Structure to design on (316 residues):
């Protein structure tokens, strides 16, 4: 019995009113669909554009504005944004907060980005952290993680993860650890750490819905490190690792009905396979062009088909 038959059965039994049945049927058959995610992404991009405009204004007019005006203005907007979140936000819960105000989420994200702008400006003008300027990323990560869990915001969580990775990279350099292979192994280690933290918090029932964010960011670190390793002397090792990673992340996406993870596996796997084939097998220009055209069409067609199949299975 598919979803449409279930709805029909519920309508017959009186579980659903006629108007409810028509609305759900329209959504299920694609006559109506939600643009909530798309609108949300555009709004967050709008926040980034605002912060970019602030940074551009500071860069071009800081001589006329002066340090006091810039620092006080950034501080005022920063405290206003974060303060609103603490005043209007719900109390902390380990579960997902589905009743939070949308404006609160955007202001929180804006406040975090403004904090980054202000700290960068202070470091640039006054060397706030001196030679240990990379600790700015560590403090930012600490703040972003706290705010992300307090107000249940996955975008701010992504800022925390990115800031921590930046600090870790600069720390490696300061510790005298250098070399592309070292950074590659560090990226793999960091990716596994993120995925491990995600599963640990999920098992601890602390913001369980953050798991996908940890896996998404962590998997990108792992995939990119594997692709960069295909050009090294450990090509066989990284090839096997890439195959296992594609299978693991793809399987997770199928089991959880999240096509984004399946798409990551397809795209990164295709890039890795194409690199190996074009580097070690195809030498003729015509063969290379033919492979690129045919393989890309097959990948696109397969991705679309798989996406529809996952959608149909989810609707059962």
């Amino acid at each position: 019995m598919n979803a449409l038959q279930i709805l029909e059965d519920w309508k017959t039994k009186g579980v659903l009113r006629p108007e409810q049945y028509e609305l759900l049927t329209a959504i299920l058959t694609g006559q109506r669909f939600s643009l909530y995610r798309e609108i949300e992404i555009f709004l967050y991009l709008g926040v980034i554009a605002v912060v970019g405009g602030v940074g551009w204004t500071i860069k071009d007019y800081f001589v006329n504005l002066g340090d006091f005006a810039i620092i006080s203005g950034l501080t005022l907007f920063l405290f206003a944004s974060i303060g609103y979140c603490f005043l209007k936000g719900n109390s902390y819960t380990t579960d997902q907060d589905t009743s939070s105000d949308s404006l609160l989420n955007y202001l929180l994200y804006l406040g975090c980005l403004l904090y980054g702008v202000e700290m960068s400006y202070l470091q640039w003008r006054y060397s706030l952290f001196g030679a240990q300027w990379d600790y700015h990323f560590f403090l930012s990560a600490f703040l972003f993680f706290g705010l992300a869990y307090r107000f249940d915001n996955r975008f701010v969580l992504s800022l925390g993860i990115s800031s921590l990775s930046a600090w870790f990279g600069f720390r490696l350099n300061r510790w005298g650890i250098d070399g592309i292979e070292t950074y590659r192994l560090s990226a793999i280690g960091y990716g596994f750490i993120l995925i491990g933290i995600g599963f640990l918090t999920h098992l601890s029932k602390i913001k369980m819905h953050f798991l996908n964010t940890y896996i998404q960011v962590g998997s990108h670190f792992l995939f990119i490190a594997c692709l960069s390793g295909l050009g090294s002397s450990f090509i066989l090792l990284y090839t096997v690792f890439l195959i296992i990673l594609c299978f693991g992340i793809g399987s997770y996406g199928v089991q959880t009905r999240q096509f984004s993870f399946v798409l990551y596996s397809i795209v990164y796997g295709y890039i890795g396979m194409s690199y190996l084939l074009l580097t070690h097998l195809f030498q003729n220009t015509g063969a290379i062009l033919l492979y690129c055209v045919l393989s890309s069409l097959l990948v696109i067609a397969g991705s679309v088909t798989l996406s529809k199949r996952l959608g149909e299975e989810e609707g059962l």
In short: The chain has two domains: 34-166, 179-316. Residues 31-36, 312-316 have pLDDT under 50 and may be disordered. Residues 179-316 form one domain.
